[in-house]
């Protein structure tokens, strides 16, 4: 009991001595031992690393999950050590909506089929986004968080202990200055040597930890490379998905009139041709040819006659009222009163049905 009381008294005395030393330093009434320049630079670099690591991490979290409510929910689940519920991301929800609407309009219609294809692509992009977020969380955010919650907390702890040892050292220096009796000076000198040794030892421990921040920078650089690689893969996947989708949509006729399409069963599908898409601008001669072709179709629609036409691309009829076509074959086309301007009546022997003019080239 007496030992505990003495220990508590000693601790209280030490705490009071540190408080007095700290207060007098703030008031300019006591000298303060300054850390060497190298150690000060290491401390400043560590603090800078902490600040920017936090900022980069937070902004990355915003990039990966823009919704603050969802981020808060995920944070709560993480603290409770529970798995957050799986939810569709925005691309997946859009894709699901497009697919459902396409099925409602009918997969056999051009619009319905296009909606389904767009929806499937949006779902693919959503899956790529999910993989990107998962990869970035593991290979980029986790190492940053581990540094802040692990290594830097250890640095903070040792830095605070170094501050305590410095206060003890300066308090011992003050007591030595105030000692008048020889015995008191001997005790003060012994205390100063002891506090100086403890301070030097703690400064060395802190220095070693702070120099380890260089290794942290090297590790975070590797993590940054992983993050950039994950972004590159994600954006490349999205680009390829959209290019493929654009090719599919480019194979549809330029316009369709759903009013002239016969209803088909929900399980039916239409086959679309592959139309080459040129990246260059059309030449003047191509523009004149296009104008001439449009004039030819207008002339045909204004007469009661018929013309020969060459089929440009394969076309599968979407209903019994349409005529399937094969590329490069020649058919007879004519205009029927009341028919949509994008369609003509086609004849091949005894077969007869509607054909889209975008698949045709009138012959002289």
Written account of the structure:
The chain is built from eight helices and five strands; from the N terminus they run H-H-H-H-H-H-H-H-E-E-E-E-E. The chain has 364 residues and is α+β, with helices and mostly antiparallel strands. A five-stranded antiparallel beta sheet has the order 4-3-2-1-5, with helices on one face. Strand 2 (330-334) and strand 3 form a beta hairpin. Helix 1 packs across helix 5 (110-178) and helix 5 (110-178) packs antiparallel against helix 6 (182-211). The radius of gyration is 40 Å and the shape is rod-shaped.
Radius of gyration: 40 Å
Strand content: 5-15%
Kindly name the structural category: alpha+beta
Mean pLDDT across every amino acid position: 82
Run of helices and strands: HHHHHHHHEEEEE
Distance between the termini: 118 Å
* Low-pLDDT ranges: 254-287
Strand order of the biggest β-sheet? 4-3-2-1-5
How many β-strands, per DSSP? 5
Helix content: 55-70%
Describe the largest sheet.
5 strands, antiparallel
What is the global morphology? rod-shaped
Distinct helical segment count = 8
Summarize the structure.
By secondary structure, this protein is of the alpha+beta class.
Could you list some keywords that capture this structure?
65% helix; alpha+beta; 8 helices; 5 strands
Write the SSE topology.
Layout lengths: L1 H25 L10 H28 L3 H12 L10 H16 L4 H69 L3 H30 L1 H38 L33 H18 L4 E6 L18 E5 L8 E6 L2 E6 L3 E3 L2
Antiparallel strand pairs: 1-2, 1-5, 2-3, 3-4
Helix pairs in contact: 1-5, 2-5, 2-6, 4-5, 5-6, 5-7
